[in-house]
Design goal:
Number of strands: 4
Mean pLDDT: 93
Number of helices: 15
Shape: globular
Structural class: mainly alpha
Bound molecules: zinc ion
Helix content: over 70%
Radius of gyration: 24 Å
Strand content: under 5%
Length: 418
């Protein structure tokens, strides 16, 4: 009988499952009392418990999709299935490696989407039950179809670029791929506001909306922060949900500030300024440029690691790659990317939380209304049913923003100092 799983694969699968199970237990099953006590100053026990329940249920969906992903990766990347399918795709494409790699990627993508679909539909109805989405199923399916299409095209471009570089420049590809990726990232950031975002929402200049009376104050704040944006747009975010937010988008001539209509509907001018002040803070601290440079550095380290791991798989079971550019290595590449993104998540989120703290400080300094800042934090946590008592493990692994209580504490400290 052919041994499906060799000892190395067995060890890798066992380690992967063990680490992910530990993370699941640490982030989802462990209770954490201290934050609950502090949260009671601002939220009722019912609110805290409801948010804990909601977060817990959402985490179960998240871990469900993660389990599907791991199972699929284990089957394709850690058994001889990858080699066999790789050979088949090479036959079909007349031994042309780039099309064979793309074909393999496509098969993996379709399987992943099919397995993920039931969970994702259940997730939609769950959000509907909790009043967290304003979409109907048909609109949700339409949006999801467009997202999947964009995702597929992006992955095809990245995959074709990667395998072309692996074939043409097998020794230096790991240095050039991040530069190419960076250029693609900047192009995407430039085009997204004009080509992609309008597929999901309408964007109207603030001066042409019913909230035009906010225009002078918003403009004055932007000028005070010396941020060079031409356009202030309102997005009909209420199409998707009641979340309130504002964000920066674009590069160069497509640069704009976007305000959610949900924010304008429900907030006082001071509250809008406080939220906007945070976004301007990101700009004042150069977070976009810093983020790009850090991303470039991380991509170089990641591609170098990928190069060394692919080399180690050449001629070794279960992969038996003929070279690093062998299409049979596609699932292994996907597995390495998966493990790498989990391993780097705490660092990435740590940096993101640092940026968010800086933006919060900038907002307090610019607008100078700490109590308004605190009121918005409480209001947003209620609208988003945010978990205001997350365990330290959750913050460490998942939080791109500081927890609500930490942001409130920071505003209180600022208030005392000024
Ligand atoms: Zn932010």
């Amino acid at each position: 009988m052919i041994r499906l799983v060799n000892p190395l694969s067995k060890t890798l699968i066992a380690s992967l499952v063990a680490v992910m199970t530990l993370l699941f237990v640490a982030t989802t099953l462990l209770p954490y009392a201290p934050a609950r006590v502090e949260a009671r100053q601002y939220f009722s026990t019912d609110e805290i418990d409801l948010a804990l329940e909601y977060t817990f249920q959402r985490r179960l969906f998240f871990w469900g999709t993660t389990a599907v992903e791991i199972a699929l990766l284990c089957v394709f990347a850690l058994t001889p299935v990858g080699r066999q399918l790789g050979d088949r795709f090479l036959d079909w494409t007349g031994q042309r490696r780039v099309p064979a790699a793309l074909m393999f990627g496509l098969v993996f993508f379709i399987l992943d989407q099919l397995l993920y679909l039931p969970i994702s539909v259940a997730r939609f109805y769950h959000a509907k039950d909790w009043g967290m989405t304003n979409l109907e199923l048909a609109d949700w399916l339409r949006d999801r179809g467009i997202s999947i299409g964009i995702d597929l095209v992006s992955r095809a471009i990245i995959g074709a670029g990667l395998y072309t570089l692996l074939i043409v420049l097998p020794r230096t590809w790991w240095l050039l791929a991040p530069l190419g990726g960076g250029a693609l990232g900047v192009t995407y950031a430039f085009l997204a506001p004009i080509l992609i975002n309008p597929l999901f929402n309408d964007f109207t200049p603030l001066a042409e909306t019913e909230w035009q009376h906010h225009q002078p104050r918003v403009r004055a704040l932007i000028d005070e922060a010396k941020v060079p944006v031409e356009e202030i747009l309102v997005m009909n975010a209420s199409r998707q949900s009641n979340h309130t937010n504002a964000y920066f988008a674009g590069f160069g001539s497509t640069r704009r500030i976007v305000l959610y209509d949900t924010l304008l509907k429900k907030s006082s001018p001071e509250e809008i300024e406080s939220v906007l002040g945070h976004e301007l803070g990101h700009w004042m601290h150069d977070h976009i440029v810093k983020g790009l440079l850090l991303g470039l550095l991380a991509a170089i380290v990641a591609c170098l690691a990928l190069d060394r791991l692919l080399r180690a798989a050449v001629g070794h079971a279960p992969w038996n790659l003929q070279s690093t550019a062998d299409p049979a290595g596609v699932p292994l590449v996907l597995l390495i990317v998966f493990v790498g993104s989990w391993a780097s998540a705490p660092l990435q989120n740590g940096i993101s939380r640092h940026f968010e703290r800086e933006a919060d400080q900038a907002s307090l300094k610019l607008v100078g209304l700490p109590q308004v800042f605190i009121d918005i934090e409480i209001k947003m946590a209620r609208i988003n049913i945010a978990n205001v008592a997350p365990t330290p493990w959750n913050v460490w692994l998942f939080s791109s923003h500081p927890p609500t209580l930490e942001r409130i504490r920071m505003a209180n400290e600022w208030k005392e100092r000024h």
